[in-house]
């Protein structure tokens, strides 16, 4: 049985709203969630994505997903900020369905929210393996095999 999830879904950039109905976003997050969660997902444009990445990570560009994790236990608490323009561009560059890339970013962000990281090589391998496993269970091709 999948953990309980309280989800807030916000579209500051509405371009992919029809592609991301609540039930799909919940399905992708729940697939990666190991404990109950209270997660807000905000789909943003490049300007907001860049400002957040600059202000919180010191990197002056919009990135695909930012995770702000507040609690790992007993309930996972986090905000996931996904930049629509970046995800759209990356999906096109990789030649994959846009929804598959959103699923990957939601899984990736949810794993970060639970303490997974990819700064060190061994951590990156473990996190990528977990992502691949989750995405395979969702019927999505392994994003790391496309490299």
Key traits:
about 150 residues, alpha/beta, 5 helices, about 45% helix
Task: Work out the helix count.
Answer: 5
Overall outline: globular
Radius of gyration: 14 Å
Helical content (DSSP H or I, runs of 4+): 40-55%
Distance between the first and last residues' Cα: 33 Å
Percent of residues in beta strands? 15-25%
Instruction: Compute the number of strand runs.
Output: 4
Write a concise synopsis of the structure shown:
The protein has helices at residues 22-32, 46-57, 84-94, 98-113, 121-137; strands at residues 5-11, 37-44, 65-71, 76-83.
Secondary structure elements and pairings:
Elements: E1 5-11, H1 22-32, E2 37-44, H2 46-57, E3 65-71, E4 76-83, H3 84-94, H4 98-113, H5 121-137
Parallel strand pairs: 1-2, 2-4
Antiparallel strand pairs: 3-4
Structure, described:
With 147 residues, this protein is α/β, with parallel strands linked by helices. The protein has helices at residues 22-32, 46-57, 84-94, 98-113, 121-137; strands spanning 5-11, 37-44, 65-71, 76-83. Helix 3 crosses helix 4. The model has no long low-confidence stretch (mean pLDDT 94).
């Amino acid at each position: 049985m999948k953990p309980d999830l309280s989800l807030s879904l916000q579209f500051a950039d509405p371009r992919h709203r029809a592609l991301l109905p609540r039930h799909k976003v919940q399905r992708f997050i729940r697939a990666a969630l190991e404990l109950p969660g209270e997660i807000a997902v905000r789909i943003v444009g490049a300007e907001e994505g860049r400002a957040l990445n600059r202000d919180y990570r010191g990197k002056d560009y919009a990135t695909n997903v930012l995770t702000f994790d507040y609690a790992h236990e007993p309930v996972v608490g986090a905000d996931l900020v996904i930049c629509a323009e970046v995800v759209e561009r990356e999906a096109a560059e990789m030649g994959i369905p846009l929804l598959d890339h959103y699923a990957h970013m939601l899984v990736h962000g949810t794993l970060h929210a639970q303490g997974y990281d990819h700064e060190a090589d061994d951590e990156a391998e473990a996190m990528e393996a977990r992502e691949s496993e989750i995405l395979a269970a969702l019927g999505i091709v392994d994003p790391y095999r496309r490299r």
